[in-house]
Amino acid sequence: MEENKVSGIGREGQVRRSADVVSIARAQESQKEGPLICDPYAHLFVSPEGEEMLRSALGRWPFFAEYLVVRDKFFDEHLRVLCEKEDVKQMVSLGAGNDMRAARLDFLKGRKVFEVDLPDQITAKKAILKSELGKLPEEVTYVGTSVTEPGFMLVLQKAGFVPEERSVFIVEGLIYYLSSEGVDCFFDELSHLPSLRNLFLVDHISIDFSQKALDPEKRGKPPYPENVLSYLSNRGFSIRESALLGNLTGKYCGKNYQEKWWVVAAIR
Question: Whole-model pTM?
Answer without folding.
Answer: 0.90
